[in-house]
């Protein structure tokens, strides 16, 4: 069975072009790993692959949901796994491309065993003072308490919440998860595209201008109903402000640019922690076909 390849990196880094080039080199098929390119009707806003790009290799999970539908990492995993299996059954290489770190983490590692927050329990814990919270946490999970920043009340409450909801020590859960993750990562293969900050900012600036010029404003204006997920897409709030007359188009573009740069910084931080990803430095002179050729020789 051919193992999937993951192409990751910040927005505007050239992930789609590299994924297509790899698909052509390795007889592969491209799978979307972006939280918003899954939606139909906001292809410009989400910087989804163009029709020309889509024609260069088989693509999956692009423009498959209505903008009124909610979407999250768990549902993404449910959609992506059968697609990966189908590609593998055809003897092809699944190539997952995207910058949504949490979505890709769910796909590669599965959901974290750490329980989600419980509003009722959280409310009860918030009523207590720090001393009593630390005392209980220390009693239940001495190792976890020692590793928790006691100056940060939010961390203390979350650590205790995990213990109470799971019935296990938080430290044990995290250790087991780290061990499981290490075993999973032995069989993973992928790359992260890395740009220096300033060249990437220039690419984001150009991407933002193209997005505005080619119809992102119209996509938001013509939308009938955006889900809570869609509302979080960069550009939606800024374009709505422009359409409401609160800002002009130049300011709208500027705000989208800065929000995208901040997002790119978070993406770089997230993926830098994924040690199983091969680092691929990019510059303006980088030839994508050459990079794809080098990687395909490694992964063939």
What does this structure look like?
It contains 15 helices and six strands. The protein has 300 residues and is an alpha/beta fold. The chain has two domains: 5-112 and 183-299, Rossmann fold, CATH 3.40.50; 119-181, Histone, subunit A. A six-stranded parallel beta sheet has the order 3-2-4-1-5-6, sandwiched between helices. Helix 1 (15-26) crosses helix 15.
Topology:
Blueprint: E1 5-8, H1 15-26, E2 28-32, H2 51-54, E3 59-60, H3 73-89, E4 93-98, H4 101-109, H5 119-126, H6 130-140, H7 142-147, H8 153-166, H9 170-185, E5 190-194, H10 197-213, H11 216-221, H12 228-231, H13 236-243, H14 249-272, E6 278-281, H15 288-299
Parallel strand pairs: 1-4, 1-5, 2-3, 2-4, 5-6
Helix pairs in contact: 1-15, 3-4, 6-8, 10-14, 13-14
Brief digest:
With 300 residues, the chain is of the alpha/beta class. The chain is built from 15 helices and 6 strands. It folds into 2 domains: 5-112 and 183-299, Rossmann fold; 119-181, Orthogonal Bundle (Histone, subunit A), CATH 1.10.20.
CATH architectural designation of the largest domain:
3-Layer(aba) Sandwich
State Rg.
22 Å
Residues in helix, % = 55-70%
Distance between the termini: 13 Å
Q: Can you summarize the main beta sheet?
A: 6 strands, parallel
- Could you name the CATH topology of the largest domain? Rossmann fold
Mean pLDDT: 96
Percent strand equals 5-15%
Provide key terms for this protein.
300 residues, alpha/beta, Rossmann fold, Histone, subunit A, 2 domains, 15 helices
């Amino acid at each position: 069975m051919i193992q999937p390849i993951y192409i990751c990196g910040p927005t505007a880094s050239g992930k789609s072009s590299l994924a297509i080039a790899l698909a052509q080199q390795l007889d592969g098929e491209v799978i979307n790993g972006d939280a918003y390119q899954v939606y139909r009707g906001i292809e410009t806003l989400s910087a989804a692959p163009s029709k020309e790009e889509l024609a260069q290799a088989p693509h999956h999970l692009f423009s498959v949901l209505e903008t009124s539908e909610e979407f999250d990492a768990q549902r993404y995993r449910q959609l992506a796994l059968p697609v990966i299996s189908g590609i593998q059954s055809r003897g092809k290489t699944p190539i997952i491309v995207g910058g949504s770190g949490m979505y890709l983490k769910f796909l590669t590692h599965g959901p974290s065993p750490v329980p989600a927050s419980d509003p009722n329990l959280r409310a009860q814990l918030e009523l207590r003072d720090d001393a009593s919270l630390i005392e209980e946490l220390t009693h239940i999970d001495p190792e976890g308490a020692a590793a928790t920043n006691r100056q940060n009340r939010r961390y203390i409450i979350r650590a205790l919440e995990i213990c109470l909801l799971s019935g296990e020590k938080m430290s044990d859960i995290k250790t087991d998860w780290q061990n499981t993750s290490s075993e999973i990562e032995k069989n993973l293969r992928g790359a992260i595209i890395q740009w220096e900050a300033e060249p990437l900012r220039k690419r984001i600036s150009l991407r933002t201008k193209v997005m505005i010029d080619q119809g992102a404003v119209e996509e938001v204006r013509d939308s009938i109903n955006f889900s809570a997920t869609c509302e979080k897409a960069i550009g939606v709030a800024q374009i709505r402000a422009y359409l409401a007359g609160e800002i002009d188009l130049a300011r709208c573009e500027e705000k989208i640019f800065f929000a995208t740069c901040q997002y790119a910084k978070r993406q770089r931080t997230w993926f830098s922690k994924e040690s199983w990803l091969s680092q691929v430095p990019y510059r303006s002179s980088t030839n994508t076909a050459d990079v794809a050729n080098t990687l395909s020789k490694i992964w063939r």
